[in-house]
Amino acid sequence: MSTPQKMKKTERITGHMTPGRGPHGGGMVGQKASNFKSSTRRLVGWLHPERTKIWAIIVAAIASVALAVTGPRVLGRGTDIIFAGAVGKTLPAGMTKAQAIDAARAAGHGQVADLISGIDLVPGQGIDFGALWHVLAIVLALYVGSTLLSYVQGWLLNDVVQNTVLRLRAAVEDKINSVPLRYFDQQPRGELLSRVTNDMDNLAQSLQQTMSQMLTSLLTIVFIMVMMIDISWTLALFVLVTVPVSMALAAVVMRRSRTQFIGQWRHTGALNAQVEEGFTGHSLTKVFGRQVEVQADFEVENDELYESSFRAQFLSGLIMPIMMFIGNINYVVIAVLGGLRVAGGTMSLGEVQAFIQYTRRFTQPVTQVASMVNLLQSGVASAERVFELLDAEEEEPEHAIALSTTTRNGRVSFEHVSFRYEDDQPLIEDLSLAVEPGQTIAIVGPTGAGKTTLVNLIMRFYELDSGRITLDGEDISQMRRHDVRANTGMVLQDTWLFDGTIRDNIAYGKLGASEEEIHAAAEATFVDRFVHSLPDGYDTIVDDEGANISAGEKQLITIARAFLANPALLILDEATSSVDTRTESLLQHAMAALRTQRTSFVIAHRLSTIRDADLILVMEHGAIVEQGNHDELIAKGAAYAKLYNAQFTGPRNSGMPQASGVAAPADRARMRPDK
Amino acid sequence: MLLRLLRENLRPYKRWIAFVVALQLIGTIASLYLPSLNADIIDKGVVTGDTGYIMRIGAWMLAVSLIQIACTITAVYFGAKTAMAFGRDVRSRFFRRVGSFSSREVGRFGAPSLINRNTNDVQQVQMLVVMAFTMMISAPIMLVGGVIMAMREDIGLSWLVAVAVPVLAAITGLIISRMVPGFRLMQTRLDTVNKVLREQITGIRVIRAFVREPFETDRFAGANTELTDIGIFVGRWMAAMFPTVMMVMNASTVAVLWFGGHRIDAGAMQIGALTAFLSYLIQILISVMMSTFMLVMVPRAAVSAERIVEVLDTRSSVVPPELGVTSVVTHGQVEFRAAEFTYAGAAHPVLRDISFSAKPGKTTAIIGSTGAGKTTLLSLIPRLFDVTGGTVLVDGVDVRDFDPEALWATIGLVPQKAYLFSGTVASNLRHGKPDATEEEMWEALEIAQAKAFVAGLPEGLDAPIAQGGTNVSGGQRQRLAIARAVIRRPEIYLFDDSFSALDVATDARLRHALEPVTRGSTVLIVAQRVFTITDADQIVVLEDGAVVGLGTHDELLATCPTYVEIVESQLKAEAS
Question: Which of B95, B194, B200 sits opposite A176 (nearest CB)?
């Protein structure tokens, strides 16, 4: 009985160790919930919609365990019948039981007399097969009933757990779509990812395992205890003493092995990092002749991993033998004490037999409950982290007078706009600006000047602290966010595409776009050209490792996507990554195609874009320090002129135009939302 | 493959394994002996009322239990030690083997795949070995021993074993064979769910900008439902597993009692033997179940083993010569003679008929569109690849005739992707020159225009660098990679588009500072942008793997249409 459960447990432990589960999983081995009680209660709350099934599960579990535990007891009666027949046959027929006892005593076999007195037999008669058949039929019925009920219980429980996890996941998904962008800025991306993936998985796993095993284990312990006490409370007392002992032993060993597993985890992580580094930097290691040192470092870490994983494996491997040993001791004691009592006629052999069975079945749920505690802790800790996400404040509800969503002209104005990410760090202060439809506005300035913030505000990714932004004269904070954004197209430096075909990625700009529309967008933005050279054409899958599509081509796809959306207003963040010259020129053309007939805000890094802009906004410390066109600003000889001279005229400029940016590219790599 | 991997790597631990097997054997025999002793208690002690005998056998049972646990614990100890040592050795062999590879083999497998094989796959096989030592050895012993003991107790009932064992094996086999593919599918679908979530979090701005939240929610709901469906499918089989197994065991017990009762009534068997037989049957069935579980692990481990052995069996295509030329290279002249290179399995060469020479003290620039083979060309010099035709010579000696260490010592490489190793700024510079002094480091940093920012870091040279150099900006990373090459003062500099992340001013200062340092060396530069190489001594124009132009900027403008086209496209891009 103990084996399948043990398998599961081992799998779980190794499951945690498998590096494939991602390095974040490592934090989970030893973690504890900070508020265990309330988080558990909340988790239980999630089970509420399934309460009918849960009641059914509890009833089925109680019934199934009760039947299963009654089995051995009844089976013991079968043993008694056989024993009675076996002993009875050795006695001469025609005698009464009392006569047989007297005869045995008279013959000096006092012990045999005691034995016979305790057995319900008829001298001279063999096994009563009619009675035996009756008993065995009952046992069989008990087992069949228990099996069916236990199956029903498992089936229902699985449904409950799966549905609960489904709802939890859906809630997480909803949350992601309804928290303000600020939430994503406030914490490291990896941390958030770990919550929605690793913690969610861990929660699902622990829920599945604890719920299915905890209930039956606890019930089994209770029922077996009742049975044992019923058979012989003195023997039961002995077994009950060993329970806390074995539990404590199991807990000690488990705690130790857990520390070792954490160590093993850490070393696995460190070694994997070394392997990754060794293989990724393979050619460098070679050319710099560092192979020997790298191998030596690897061996050191490898040895440490060996040591810690050996200890972890050994300690966790101890639990089973220890439990078996305690089980065996129980077995021996019961066999001896029981044997003595049967011989003394105070207990039947069947009862001893049943008792032995009970002790054998007792250690296993006890071990299980002990190991469940760890699992439960880690599961609740994960639940807590998921709940924290679910508790995040959502975007302000729309107090929208739903305005018409008809295509807009793209007139934008900022009126005394102020905004800050942190209350004590002013970023954009009292900014005013008016943009006519169709104009191109180039935004330039050093890192942290607030360029990205400015465009984020137009998209209403963040709410203003004061002032207002209008689109065609309407305050965007009075519009539905969706309507604001539906009128705005965006091409970011970060070329985000999802794992799908090129066609699907372009069509992302306009759901339900026809094939013609997609092709038209692709042609206008030069995507069509390179797609034709791909073996799968528009069905080529875009993925991270997809070496088939270059960074520049990915950028073209994002432009096509925005083109298809056909927005009145456009936000462009000019790319600065190094792409080869031909793709570069395609990008330029595609961006230009996208800009025509639209109001465009461009976070500009290219001289040509800046020169051609209708209006240049020079930003410094969140304020627009200058605005005007290129010639005006150069003539003014202030901030823009300084910037221009510093960045666009290299020290040995031979008149060759340069494609370098306003902000030093080195810093740009670190620039996400300015803050 | 699996067997070979196990055989080869477990060989050093033969003694331990023999020890484990012996211990498991003793332990199993001990635990098989207990029911038999219990039978004796009943038949000889209880039936005759001999309490002294009961006590004696009881003590003996206790002793047997002690022997059993001692054996098992020792077996677990050595089993774990052997299994983990096996894992360690395979990892080490694997890592060493990959270390011997050239870039060609690394490229063939791909670094991510190699990483996976060295970690996850080894882990899989190691897990199998652990299981083998803890269960796989004891299960068959238990099975065989149990059968023997059961038959010893009563041969007439042994047909029950012959019935129960196949029934149980068939049932567990059936359920597991349904569950395993389900589990695999579940993992894939879980990955999909997580992938969608990851995409949504990384692409949150785009999703909101395009108002695609409803679309994303649908996409997620689809993945989530699929995952739940398979979870329910697998869960139902799992729910069936345990009750069914228990049913088979319980039914066997009932059968033993019924048929055993008849044997006893016929006087062919004693009551104690009946209880012993029952215990043995249960033990046999448990070991059958374990064996079934074990068998499930084997195919997975076999796949992993195959992936490991595939790498271990691969030989590097770049083989160092037996007696390499170790003479110090003094000039560093590089010459390509009709060099050709074809990737393994590719139909067409990436480079063909490449001939030119790069002289010490001169700068040779290589230009051409993406995929023209520029990086591959540079890689031929330090033998990251070996030519598949023609020759590459350094100082007139075929690079394949050099002792690799001697060859590499003359080269300073700055790769396209500026990769830094985890450690500190100093440890990265020491990659370039192991015995570099602090003074040398600062000097190299100064040349690479990295002195200011390193000096600005609180820890200076000891500032930590994350794996890959991800904790410094792209430009800083590139400058450190340049410093790492410069500190070597090599005869040959290889710059593979190494200035791309630098702004124009820094770029210019850096080139200016490099000039005196590289004066006596051969410099090869791969470039994207024409303006950075206009004053090179020689420009090699590559197109589709062939040299289509060779000369100075002005010469090429007059003679090479491809070059003119590149120059014009860059001008136009700017002007548009």
Answer: B200
Query: Which residues 392-411 on chain A approach chain B with CB closer than 8 angstroms?
Result: none
CA distance B106 to B115: 11
Q: Which of B507, B510, B526, B527 is nearest to B518 (CA)?
A: B510
DSSP 3-state of B500? coil
What lies within 8 Å, CB to CB, of B292 at 6+ separation is B169, B172, B173, B176
Q: Which residues of A, range 645-664, sit inside 8 Å of B by Cβ?
A: 646-647, 650-654, 656-661, 664
For chain B, what are the domain ranges?
1-153+297-316, 324-410+492-502+522-576, 416-489
Helices assigned H by DSSP within A391-467: 451-458
CB B82 within 8 A of CB B129: yes
Looking at residue A361, its amino acid is R
From residue A667, give the alpha-carbon distance in Å to each of A426, A670, B44, B477. Answer: 22, 6, 90, 11
Transcribe B141-186 into DSSP letters.
HHHHHHHHHHHHH-GGGTHHHHHHHHHHHHHHHHHHHHHHHHHHHH
Model ipTM value: 0.81
- Find out if CATH 2.60.120.650 is the number for domain B1-153+297-316: no
Was domain B416-489 assigned CATH 3.40.718.10? no
Residues B252 and B225 sit within 8 Å (Cβ to Cβ): no
pTM, rounded to two decimals: 0.73
Are A478 and A426 in contact by the 8 Å Cβ rule? The answer is: no
Cα separation, B352 vs B340, whole angstroms: 4
Assess contact for A540 and A548: CB atoms under 8 A: yes
Per-residue pLDDT of A486-538, as tens digits, reads 888 888 776 788 888 888 888 888 888 888 889 888 888 888 877 877 777 88
Per CATH, B1-153+297-316 and B416-489 having the same topology is answered no
Q: How far apart are CA A315 and CA B87, in angstroms?
A: 18
Q: Could you count the other beta carbons within 10 Å of the beta carbon of residue A444?
A: 28
Contact A89, A126 (CB under 8 A): yes
- For B324-410+492-502+522-576, the fitting CATH number among 3.40.50.300, 3.40.50.1980, 3.10.20.740, 3.60.10.10 is 3.40.50.300
Instruction: Enumerate the β-bridge partners of residue B366.
Output: B526, B540
Q: What is d(CA A483, CA A490) in angstroms, rounded to the nearest whole number?
A: 14
Give the phi and the psi of residue A7 in degrees, each rounded to 5.
Answer: -55, -50
Nearest to A321 among B69, B200, B505 (CB): B69
What is the SS3 assignment for A547?
A: coil
pLDDT tens track for A533-585: 777 788 888 865 445 677 778 888 888 888 888 888 888 877 555 556 667 77
Give the integer Cα–Cα distance in Å for B162 and B151. Answer: 11
**Which backbone phi and psi does B529 adopt, to 5 degrees?**
-105, 135
Asked if B224's CB is within 8 angstroms of A170's CB, the reply is yes
Instruction: Show the DSSP H helices in A91-199 as ranges.
Output: 97-106, 110-117, 129-178, 181-186, 189-194
